[in-house]
Amino acid sequence: MKDIYHHLRASHERQRELIAALLQSAPRSEARSALFTSVRRELMAHAAAEERFLYAPIMHLDAGLASSRHALSEHHEIDELLEELSVSEKSARGWMTKAKKLGEEVRHHLEEEERKFFQISGKLLSARQKSLLAKSYDRDYQRLLKIF
Q: Which residues contact 114 (CB under 8 A, 6 or more apart)?
């Protein structure tokens, strides 16, 4: 049975692929706009579902509090960059510089999460919890993809 980490890693791979494509996109292209919309939707749906169904349960445990708070702060930084990129013209001077910063922040967060947070949280959750959280995460993630 798939656990929550399976679903999270699948989303992480989509994030990496979408950001790589965005950073290769041509200025003033419809592709850049569409890719940014896809990146934004993926990041926002993933973060919201992950915060609800992984960070929150771990945050309630003393051993997971610091790592959960750190991961949340990184989500906040990514949210701020998404907001800045959303309100400026995709072909404007400096937009790609901010998009590259977003890519760096996301890659850093994903790597740190996969190497550190998953190990910490994996020790704190039972196999049954991981399975139940996977179902809740995936259901919410799919719902959120339609909203964002």
A: 9, 12
The 3-state DSSP class for residue 135 equals helix
Using the predicted structure, report yes or no on whether residue 1 has a pLDDT greater than 80. Answer: no
Is the pLDDT assigned to residue 119 strictly greater than 80?
Answer: yes
Do residues 116 and 67 lie in contact, with contact meaning Cβ atoms separated by under 8 Å? yes
Structural domain total, the chain: 1
Instruction: Find out whether 50 and 8 touch, Cβ atoms under 8 Å.
Output: yes
CATH code for position 91: 1.20.120.520
With a threshold of 0.90, does the pTM exceed it?
yes
Domain enclosing residue 111, as ranges: 4-147
CA pair distance 45, 62, nearest whole angstrom: 27
pLDDT of residue 28: 86
